[in-house]
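Can you give me the bound-state structure? Components:
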Amino acid sequence: MLEVEGLVAGYGGTPMLRDVSVRLAAGEIVGLLGANNAGKTTLINCLSGIVQPMAGRIVFDGQDVTRATARERVELGIIQVPEGRLVFPEMSIRENLLLGGFCDRARPHRPAQMEKVLELFPRLKERLTQAAGTLSGGEQQMLAIGRGLMAEARILMLDEPSLGLSPLFVQYIFEIIDKLHKDGLTMLLVEQNLNLTLRHAQRCYVLERGQIAVEGDADIVKNDPRTRQAYLGL
Amino acid sequence: MSEFWQALAQGVLIGSTYGLLALGMGLVYGVSGIVNFAHGDFISLAMFMSLALFSAFALDPYVSALITIPVMALIGGLVYRYLLRPMAGHQFLMIVQLTLGLSLVIQNGILMVFGGQPARTPSIVESKLIILGDVVLRLPHLIAFVVAFAMAIGLYVMLRSTDFGRSIRAVHQNARAAALMGVDVGRVQVVTFAIGVGILAVAAALLLPGTPITPTQGLQYTVITLLVVVLGGMTNFVSIMLSGLVIGLSEAFGQIYVSDTLGRLVPYAIFVLIMLFRPQGLTWRTS
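Here's the bound-state model for the whole set.
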């Protein structure tokens, strides 16, 4: 469904990613692991069209989208749930969700889609008019995921969804991820939390200083000594 | 006592137009972080455009607004797209410098075309008065008040409950997240700037009847607008309108109760006083 080939990208001329190739099949959860600064966020920002790659190709559904704008990618259904949630703090939950379905493709189905999202997150339903900035971290993460789903994502890229959450919320968020997986959603899960990701993803890539160090089925990656090495930065 | 009511009425009426001027600036600041020091000169430009349309076709300023509003909006959009946007990401002061330069260009351009004599653009309602007991209101002021508030309410509703309005607020609150929702941030900024400058053309038409205009008046409007925007906390719509009223009232009371020259200082004195005790301005929410 998504193929990334030989991607080189970075900020201000210094590459953060060097020759990265990643594939996602439809319906898969793929984990993208790595220590801080390994280039995980740069990679999904390239996929979202916020960072322009210096070299390489991104193909989505057989279509070359390497040069597509951020807006065009949202229209295609490549949706990012950013690190730190980035909800619109002064807007209500309802308005945040409406903005999630802003793109032309999703806009006509917003009422139905919102019902589905609120069914998934009953907690948001109780406080639709509350300003997003007043929610707890876990609730904001629910909202950020809900907002991503409002865009009728075909690939949902979750950047550090467990960051800063209490263990209970982390568990809850991963239950949601499993539920979405059962419904057939393709997901790219960017995480620092190694064990959790290995448990939920079918396949994983481990980034180390901008390059793929290990890749393969979750079990294989789990037992590969280079995985721990990449993590500890040895 | 009649003086008091007169000042109150006049202040509210003028203040509403100041509020409208400031909404244009606040809107632009909200989505692109730019403070436009050519703001007042755009008002001048719209006013002189009305003058030209009056001289050529005898159009009343209220009628010629139908032409100046879209023309000014277009100019605003082009200025943002081709002058200001290329400066995005540079130092704040460089953008200030650029808008100051633009202010001089507009000022001298008007001077070249229209000369330095003060001019007037007459309107049929100009000398109409409305007398309520002891208070005498000029009809243009009343029209300005009604239109300014109608526009402010219209803008507020647009921002609150349309997709386009929500996309403007989204860019203001978090441009990166807005881009991830498929909002074209660059386009929102251009359109918002165009709307901001279009609003100035409305304000220009409201201010014109009975007001003499000179090419160099721009800075004066910029300063009064800045005063209102800062007092209103930069981006909060309701408090910007409120600040417009505060500045309008202090101007009117200053003119009536304090001697002429000193009276003009009253709005600035009140501004300084408020800022000393409430540095966040008149907003009740800091965000």
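A couple of observations. Residues 67 and 81 of chain B are 22 Å apart (CA to CA). Residues 2-32 of chain B form the longest helix (31 residues).
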